[in-house]
């Protein structure tokens, strides 16, 4: 009897955990660098991530570089407040502030802020190093190791313009969701590389609309960036893509909720 009770309790706990992890929003809306535009916040700031979560986005994208002394940080451009990230030590970068008073967030701080909830996924973009391919792959390895250390695999999808970085993620974590950004692989090539989806500029899909159906047939997800006007949003929604990355998440959410 005790064994049956224990087994039942364990099953309930497993189901509770599974249900908890299954609560991410499903509305196609990916906030580009966070929902920064809604409240005039700095892009890639933790505040912009929180705004995307509050807005109810399915995902919030952020960009990651590595400092000269090996610290992963969230920032879109190669420089931060005039300092080149890849050739500047972390302590020097921290002396500068974002317009809202935040210091440049580490990737770990950004991830942990996202882990406090399970509604909005984190779209982790690995920026290709301007120093070397080797450094790009080092950033990639550290990124996957960090996500694993924080036990945040369920929260994180990966994207990158660097094909080798995408392939390395797949090699390190066969269960990782990885999408390639550059727009030069066919759906079949992306499938063969082990990716879970295409994440291309919307003009690529407009030039190759057949890729949308091909991707669906192959079981690949489709994301389009960066879609900021209603006409293109409508085109993508009519094509029933899986995700749309936008600087205007509030506008897109309104459109989605009317459907």
Low-confidence parts lasting 5 or more residues at pLDDT below 50? 1-7, 9-20
How big a fraction of the residues is strand? Answer: 15-25%
Q: Report the count of strand segments.
A: 11
Q: What string gives the helices and strands in order?
A: HEHEEEEHHEHEHEHEHHEHEH
Continuous helix count: 11
> Overall 3D geometry?
globular
End-to-end separation in angstroms reads 51 Å
Largest sheet: 8 strands, parallel, barrel
Strand order across the biggest sheet? 1-2-6-7-8-9-10-11
Helix content: 40-55%
Radius of gyration: 19 Å
Q: Please tell me the overall pLDDT.
A: 93
* Alpha-beta classification: alpha/beta
Question: Summarize this, please?
Answer:
The chain is 42% helix and 18% strand.
Task: Describe this structure as you would to a colleague.
With 259 residues, this protein is of the alpha/beta class. It is 42% helix and 18% strand. It contains 11 helices and 11 strands. Helix 2 runs parallel beside helix 4 (107-115) and helix 5 packs parallel to helix 6 (163-172). It is globular and about 50 Å long.
Properties at a glance:
alpha/beta, 11 helices, eight-stranded parallel beta barrel
């Amino acid at each position: 009897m005790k064994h049956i009770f224990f087994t039942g309790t364990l099953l309930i706990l497993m189901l509770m955990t599974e249900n908890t992890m299954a609560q991410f929003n499903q509305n196609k809306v990916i906030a580009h660098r966070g929902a920064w535009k809604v409240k005039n916040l700095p892009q890639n700031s933790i505040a912009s991530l929180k705004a995307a979560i509050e807005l109810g986005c399915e995902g919030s994208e952020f960009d990651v570089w590595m400092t000269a002394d090996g610290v992963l940080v969230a920032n879109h451009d190669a420089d931060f407040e005039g300092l080149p990230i890849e050739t500047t030590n972390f302590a020097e970068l921290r002396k500068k502030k974002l317009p809202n008073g935040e210091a440049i967030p580490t990737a770990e701080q950004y991830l942990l802020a996202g882990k406090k909830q399970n509604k909005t996924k984190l779209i982790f973009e690995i920026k290709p190093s301007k120093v070397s391919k080797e450094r790009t792959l080092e950033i990639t390895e550290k990124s996957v190791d960090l996500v694993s250390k924080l036990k945040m695999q369920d929260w994180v999808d990966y994207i990158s313009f660097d094909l080798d970085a995408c392939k390395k993620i797949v090699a390190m974590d066969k269960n990782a969701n990885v999408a390639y950004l550059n727009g030069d692989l066919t759906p079949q090539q992306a499938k063969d590389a082990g990716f879970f989806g295409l994440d291309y500029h919307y003009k690529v899909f407009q030039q190759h609309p057949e890729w949308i159906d091909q991707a669906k047939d192959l079981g690949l997800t489709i994301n389009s960036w960066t879609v900021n006007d209603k006409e293109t949003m409508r085109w993508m929604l009519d094509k029933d893509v899986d995700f749309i990355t936008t600087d205007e998440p509030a506008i897109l959410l309104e459109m989605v909720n009317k459907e």
